[in-house]
Structure formats: structure tokens, C-alpha cells
Amino acid sequence: FGKLANASGTAEMMAMPVALVLILGIIEVGGAAILLAGPLAKDWMVRLTGLGFAGIMLGAIMMVHAAHGWNSIGNMGMEFQVTLALISLYFAIVGNVGSTNDRVKDL
Whole-model pTM? Predict the structure, then answer.
């Protein structure tokens, strides 16, 4: 919620427009809610969330973390962001395999 609560400060720190910071914050909070909904979320929602998160992580890697190298311990490297991007791509490709709708169709 930090990006949403202090959008102007985050925008200034990241040298980005406030509107873009708000959009990113809404995608992150909304996407997290969709993933936390688990089997209640629709398959297309989980796939779209995965794509959104992968895009955000790719942007974070390119804008900030790649310049600091791989190791993220103590120097803001990109190890954690690459892991999150790969997990997000998994959700984008596989979707919500445990959704209620899929289980009903398989019966």
C-alpha cells in the first residue's frame, strides 16, 4: 500500500509521473487480492495478473536492479525480482489450475 499512500513521494523518488505510480500500485494491490482469492478467482484473472506482475518486475529490473548485478543481499541486485518475474510468468501461462470452474468441468 506504500505506493498508493504516498504516491507523490514515490513518484519523485522513482522519477516517474504520479499517475503511473498510482496505476502500478492499483495493479499490485488488485493483483495480490486476485492471487489471494485462490480457487475463487477466474482463470483469466490469474493469467492477466501474472502478465501484469511480470511486466512490473521486468520494469523494476531494467530501471533499478540490473545495474546492481545479480545478488540482492545488501546491494539491490535483481535476484528477487527475477524470481518474482518467473513466478508471475508461471501464473500467466498456467493460470488458475485449481479454480472452482475447472474442477466442475473436469467432473
Answer: 0.79
Q: What's the CA gap between 63 and 24, in Å, rounded?
A: 14
| Amino acid (1-letter code) at residue 97 | V
Give the C-alpha distances (Å, rounded to integers) separating 35 from 4, 38, 57: 19, 6, 16
Q: Which three cell numbers stand for residue 20?
A: 503511473
Separation between Cα atoms, residue 49 and residue 75, nearest integer Å: 28
- CA nearest neighbour of 18 among 7, 6, 27: 7
* Average pLDDT over the chain, rounded to an integer: 85
Q: What is the pLDDT of residues 35-80, one digit of tens each?
A: 998 788 888 999 999 999 999 999 989 988 888 888 877 778 888 9
Crossing angle (nearest 10°) for helices 7-14 and 18-36: 110
* Cα–Cα distance measured from residue 78 to residue 57, given in angstroms and rounded to the nearest whole number: 10
Instruction: Please give the C-alpha separations between residue 56 and each of 1, 76, 85, 87, 98, in angstroms, as whole numbers.
Output: 15, 16, 8, 13, 25
- 35: which 3 cell numbers? 492471487
